[in-house]
Write a structure and sequence with these properties.
With about 350 residues, this protein is an alpha/beta fold. It contains 13 helices and 13 strands. A hairpin with a 2-residue loop joins strand 10 and strand 11. It binds pyridoxal-5'-phosphate (PLP). The site of pyridoxal-5'-phosphate has 15 residues, from helix 4 and helix 5.
Length: about 350
């Protein structure tokens, strides 16, 4: 049996007829940027997240960069960020002329260890940017309490957490502002690049709306030095038609995760924690294996695709040579051992069983 890690063709197949209809509708409308398709999606996604505002942008990296730019922190201010996040979270901070300060994750959840945040705060710290990694929300009560104590802003990288819950609130509505990506492989994915920012902050929303469009609030009048970072009508229309299925797809992901958690039974394979199973949206199902290469090769030979999120930690990347001597042992261990196994809403019961049996026989 062949179980690819992810087939975007298969995940989009159920929407294909509707997508083609939508494409034709947008083509015929004669309006392709900053139009009614975008407004419609922004309203729907704000309602979904429970926030006052949703502002569409070109991608997830821009979403985070623009939130930070709109915050107007002094140049070289420090932003606390998890050391084991996807590089885009950290690039957004650098792009906004700010300094990322890396904090280790918790060993079991892979989420930023809030108990280490206070030690990383200095006079230059302005914000904490957390990542709801793999689809699980961070410890937001504790993180927001620390921020309040020190007068810091909190932002979320929610690119892997569309629909994830934390105490009855959704990811994207747990801080001062959140960045989403709708990259095709995300839980809510477009047919190309797309992103959005959610916030309840009036001033931040006003600046973000201008920043995504060259810094303009009125045509040909520029109050800020902005970007060209807009979510186009075609992508917005596709996202609007896929959004109503997001909860259902997340529920399917959860059921698959539940089976993996109950049925994978192998001392060599460390499973993710199950205490937040119903709040997670299981963007990725990440296990830890000491001999990762052996495990991946074994699965590949059995026809099961895997991936690694992520193989090299940000502080070991050439892009950040200034961090080459940093020692972040938990982050490094995680990057050496994590493996993502197939989990997406199109997996069939027999494929799930095959993955489970194959792993149990490793
Ligand atoms: C995908 C992703 C991003 C970047 O989103 P793009 O739309 O590809 O720019 C940022 N952070 C995390 C955690 C992601 O998974």
């Amino acid at each position: 049996m062949q179980v690819p890690f992810l087939s975007l063709k298969t995940t989009n197949q159920v929407f294909e007829t509707q997508i083609v209809e939508k494409l034709s509708e947008v083509v015929q409308s004669g309006w392709y940027i900053l139009g009614e398709q975008l407004t419609k999606f922004e309203e729907a996604f704000a309602t979904y997240c429970g926030t006052k505002y949703c502002i569409g942008v070109a991608n997830g990296l821009d979403a985070l960069t623009i939130i930070l730019k709109a915050s107007e922190f002094p140049d070289k201010s420090e932003i606390i960020v998890p050391a084991n996040t996807y590089i885009a979270t950290i690039l957004a901070i650098s792009n906004a002329n700010l300094i990322p300060v890396l904090v280790e994750p918790k060993h079991d959840t892979y989420l930023i260890d809030y108990q280490l945040i206070e030690k990383a705060i200095t006079a230059k710290t302005k914000a904490i940017l957390v990542t709801h990694l793999y689809g699980k929300c961070c410890d937001m009560d504790e993180i927001n309490a620390i921020a309040q104590k020190y007068g810091l802003k909190v932002f979320e990288d929610a690119a892997q957490a569309h629909g994830a819950m934390y105490k009855n609130k959704k990811a994207g509505n747990l801080s001062d502002g959140a960045g989403f990506s709708f990259y095709p492989s995300k839980n809510l994915g477009a047919m190309g690049d797309a992103g959005a920012i959610t916030t309840n902050d009036d001033l931040l929303a006003k600046r973000i709306k201008a920043l995504r469009n060259y810094g303009s609030e009125k045509k040909y009048v520029f109050d800020y030095q902005g970007y060209n970072s807009r979510l186009d009508e075609i992508q917005a229309s596709i996202l609007s038609l896929k959004l109503p299925s997001l909860n259902e797809e997340n529920a399917v992901r959860r059921k698959i995760a539940q089976r993996y958690l109950l049925e994978i039974d192998n001392d060599k394979v460390l499973l993710p924690p199950r205490n937040t199973i119903n709040d997670d949206v299981w963007h990725l199902f990440v296990v830890r294996v000491k001999n990762r290469e052996l495990f991946r090769n074994y699965l590949a030979e059995a026809g099961i695709g895997t991936d690694i999120h992520y193989p090299i930690p940000p502080h070991k990347q050439l892009a950040y040579q200034e961090w080459q001597n940093l020692s972040l042992p938990i982050t490094e261990e995680i990057h050496q051992q994590v493996v993502s196994i197939p989990l997406n809403p199109t997996l069939k019961e027999k494929e799930i069983s095959y993955v489970i049996n194959t792993i149990n026989n490793f």
